[in-house]
Amino acid sequence: MNYRRAVASMLFALCAAPALWAHPHVFIDSSLEFEMSGRDCVGIVVSWTFDVVFSADIIGQFDKDRDGAFNEAETATVQAKAFSNLRKYGYFTFVRKGSVRTCPEAVEAFGVSQSDGRVTYRFRVPLEGKGVSDDFSVATFDSTFYCATKYVDGAASVRWIGDRPADEPTIAIAANKDYPVYYNPLGSATDSRVYTKWEKGLQTAYPEEIRVRF
Description:
alpha+beta; 3 helices; globular
């Protein structure tokens, strides 16, 4: 059962509630930690904390010993069955330098935890040698708008790993209307289509980018 099917299994059980049939279906609080070497960003550690409904599904399926934590084996299972599929969607992570926007082909150091009924994923996006420096933007979003993401503490969601850059950068968070996301507001819980252009009946969302500028 992959990530989207795991969500769908719970949503189908609750299908009597009409509100569940409008996008999005999952809600994520995101925070980013930038790993800097001078003005070069060499990595980003991403943390996602999920809503209680999706969290309950993950806990119910994968915390096999019901001890309120994910051990090494359980973490590996979560990664394989409820995370690795997101490679098809760029791990919901979009890095933009000028007009060029890319997604990671792979991530590392995946971890999963739970607290107060909410599950948090944590992983590192390696950027060594990618030329991400001086003025760049990062966005967390799902291009299908199946999941809605937000930076839970605004600019305070941005943190630094290791030493803070000697040259203090400016941090700004704003919707980038050059990169819209089109979605079907009446799409079912299994609708994971990526729309590359507007069609009749679709609605538009604009991903919020975190811009780091020296």
